[in-house]
Amino acid sequence: GRMFSGLAQTGAWSCFDEFNRIEVEVLSVVAQQILCILSAVKEKKSHFIFENFDIPLNLNVGIFVTMNPSGKGYAGRSELPDNLKALLRPISMMVPDFALICEITLLSCGFTDSRVLGHKVTLLYDLMDKQLSKQNHYDCSLRNIKAVLVQAGKLKREALNSVKSTVTEPQLCLKAC
Description:
two-stranded antiparallel ribbon; 50% helix; mainly alpha; 9% strand
């Protein structure tokens, strides 16, 4: 309750990741707390009773959740209770454009051939994801790709600071991988 109380008072936005991994009993309590806050926001109250305390309300409060589908391939997920589903507006997410993210990241690091290199890095990780076994130590996530690109940027800066460097941009990307 303290977290939701703080959100309501400060008007902060919060995103709860993998919300449907929480036990159903806990979700039921959370639903009541969210309902209390959203009702007060809807009525544009300046104060409201939350968990037996009269607290100020900042109408900018936002509560967002992410969920993975319950069922096949997503162990430990449950369906949300109907009272909680009614409080949340569903939206669809799409897979990000890895090549564009790579291109922009490399461009921001000073790479002049960022489009071609971004495509190559994306292709490399796509091939690794498809051809390597599904063991945990093979991480082809966007987070890992981003870390490699940041390392490539660091190598690029080091090469620029070196007077006698003849390393090409593709070599820097390859070294970072």
